[in-house]
Amino acid sequence: MNQLVKIKEFLLDILFPPLCLNCSSSLQEKEKTSALCGRCREKITVHTTLFCSVCRARLPDNKKTCHKNSSYLLGAATNYDEVIKSIIHRFKYKFWTRLENPLSDLLLTYTKNLSPDGLLFKNYTVIPVPLHKNREQERGFNQSERLAKIIAIRYHLPMEIKALSREKETKPQAELKNWEERKTNLAKSFVVANPTAVKGKNIILIDDVYTSGATINEAVQSLRSAGARKIIALVLAKTK
Ligand SMILES: [Zn+2]
Ligand SMILES: [Zn+2]
């Protein structure tokens, strides 16, 4: 992390005592590392199963029970509702370092719910959904890469940051009105830059949110064409 950012945050903490990032109530000592007050944290329900990537049904025991030929399983730590929406937004656009802790807690609580012994993730390679290089430069970091790192470290998995690359500079999906526009916007936007990192591999594809699913679908398609085997798309939050 940038030293200046650290110093700035340290000074801000002294000048302005930490407040809950969601409701602005002042945080008690033990809450300070989480950046959220107890009440707001309780509002976040952490899921316990994977989901079908076609109909978003819960999949008990992490097995495909409905759309058996769907091309990937969807893992989402929580639903994309008000509290989590504002947290992720700040994480993404302001690089609020205090948010890395609560977000990684959320993600790891979820993966532990899915697989207490971690065996579900054995023999997987972690790949973050890339940003186009112009976007990454503008933002200063790729939020998916930070989340991917948390998973790779926790489960001792290889991470391939450059396996997938984003060649086309797409508009932010949030600016587009309908699904058709979103799909055209994203068509052929991903390229597998390192095929040997993908061919024959099981992949955990990481992104921050899953709304229309168009971004992940595109990325999965590219990975599949490059010969990927099982794919789990893992995100912090999904819309219902
Ligand atoms: Zn709060
Ligand atoms: Zn289904």
Automatic annotation (TrEMBL):
UniProt domain Phosphoribosyltransferase: residue ranges: 162-238
InterPro entries tied to this protein: ComF/GntX_DNA_util-trans, DZR_2, PRTase-like, PRTase_dom
Pfam families referenced in this protein's UniProt entry, alphabetically: DZR_2, Pribosyltran
Superkingdom of this protein's organism: Bacteria
Double zinc ribbon domain sequence ranges: 11-67
Family: Belongs to the ComF/GntX family.
PANTHER family xrefs: DNA UTILIZATION PROTEIN YHGH
Name the record gives this protein: Phosphoribosyltransferase domain-containing protein
Organism: Candidatus Harrisonbacteria bacterium RIFCSPHIGHO2_02_FULL_42_16
